[in-house]
Amino acid sequence: MKQTILAFAAWLFSAMAAAAVPQGFAIHDTPQIVPNVRFVTRDGSRMDLEDFQGRVVLLNIWATWCVPCREEMPTLDALQAELGGPGFEVLALSIDRAGAGVVQRFYDEIGISKLKMYVDTTMLSATALRAFGLPTTLLIDRNGREIGRLVGPAEWDDPEMIAFLRQYVK
């Protein structure tokens, strides 16, 4: 009887945890290794993913020519405003070959103010991270491992999504 109750409790806990995952977000059974991709900032400084160790990162791979990417950018900016800080960052990584200038014009055009600019004009990061569609977003833990991913656009400022991400930031 005790084993039955424990089994039911375990099932119920896993069902409740699964219900908390936003639609389309695939959580891995065990965290996955993430390649240390490189990119540049607005001012041309070189960075890589290892620079974000110790923080939870929502890595969004996007491009200005991708219509769904363009539509979700304001929600990523709002998410950064809500959760951003020393323990969490939305890393919006543009793979625009035209570079930071085109990304800056887009940021200015739609009023992106909270997201920092990161650009990979080589597009090698998308290949290394297995981002076969845009946008692709990876949730990365403080140790630099992928917890899960979502392929396609999302409403990142939706209360359900914020609550889901907040549990990883704590």
| Name of the level-1 CATH class | Alpha Beta
- List the total number of helices: 5
Q: Residue-averaged pLDDT, rounded? A: 91
Element pattern in H and E = HEEEEHEHEHEEH
Share of residues in strands: 25-35%
Name the CATH superfamily classification.
Glutaredoxin
In the CATH hierarchy, what is the architecture at level 2?
3-Layer(aba) Sandwich
Overall SS class: alpha+beta
Oligomer: single chain
Radius of gyration: 17 Å
Number-wise, the strands total 8
- What are the low-pLDDT stretches, counting only 5+ consecutive residues below 50? 6-19
Shape: globular
Descriptors:
170 residues; Glutaredoxin; eight-stranded mixed β-sheet; 5 helices; globular; cytochrome c-type biogenesis
How would you summarize the topology of this molecule?
Layout: H1 2-19, E1 26-33, E2 38-41, E3 46-48, E4 56-62, H2 67-83, E5 88-94, H3 100-110, E6 118-119, H4 124-128, E7 136-140, E8 145-151, H5 159-169
Parallel strand pairs: 4-5, 5-6
Antiparallel strand pairs: 1-8, 2-3, 2-6, 4-7, 7-8
Could you describe the 3D structure shown?
28% of the residues are buried. It contains five helices and eight strands. It has one domain: 3-Layer(aba) Sandwich (Glutaredoxin). An eight-stranded mixed beta sheet has the order 1-8-7-4-5-6-2-3, covered by helices on one side. The termini are far apart. The longest helix has 18 residues. The protein has 170 residues and is α+β, with helices and mostly antiparallel strands. α2 links the parallel β4 and β5.
